[in-house]
Design a protein that fits this description.
single chain; magnesium; metal-binding; 9 strands; Hypoxanthine phosphoribosyltransferase; 6-stranded mixed β-sheet; 4 helices; glycosyltransferase; nucleotide-binding
């Protein structure tokens, strides 16, 4: 898999540092509260676990699965809800954890879904933010790294369900997905 990577952007150690920093920020911001953490499957699970290890507050956790890439390298523009949240969110403080925010369409869809469900407060945490790709006006409250407008994989991010298990985030060689 390493041979398919053009360049490593963020090492295992850098990602661990970002998770620790964000975990401490969340601990400070949610002191005395019990938020519901919602991890976006499948990509955000690695980051969610590492952030939660550094988050020193009582919390509940749930998962949502949405899809907009459908195996490609760009968002299709259509967001599909694959797995709904099982927890009652009415009146809850929500921390939504994403792997990457690119166009923002998926995040906008999920935030609207949570608002419709009666969430009290919604904050967004993401490992990677790609502002150059944004087509809707939405921002994260907690960001690990700003990422260039490249196709990245690793640490939960995939191409055709592959590369998620790389311990770092890297730019995938275009030859891999231009076959």
């Amino acid at each position: 898999m390493d041979n398919d990577i053009e360049k490593v952007l963020y090492s295992r150690e850098e990602i661990a540092g970002a998770a620790k920093r964000i975990g401490k920020e969340l601990t400070h911001d949610y002191e005395g509260r019990q938020p519901l953490v919602i991890s976006v499957l499948k990509g955000a699970i690695f980051f969610t676990v590492d952030v939660l290890k550094e988050f020193d507050c009582y919390t509940d956790i749930d998962f949502v699965d949405v899809s907009s890439y459908h195996g490609g390298t760009e968002s299709s523009g259509k967001v599909d809800l694959v797995r709904e949240i099982n927890t009652d969110i009415k009146g809850r403080d929500i921390i939504l954890i994403e792997d990457i925010i690119d166009t923002g369409r998926t995040l906008e869809y999920m935030v609207n879904l949570l608002k419709q469900g009666g969430a009290n407060d919604i904050k967004v945490c993401t490992l990677l933010d790609k502002p150059e790709g944004r087509v809707v006006d939405i921002k994260a409250n907690y960001v690990g790294f700003n990422v260039p407008n490249e196709f990245v994989v690793g640490y939960g991010l995939d191409y055709n369900e592959l590369y998620r298990n790389l311990p770092y985030v890297g730019i995938l060689k275009p030859a891999v997905y231009q076959k």
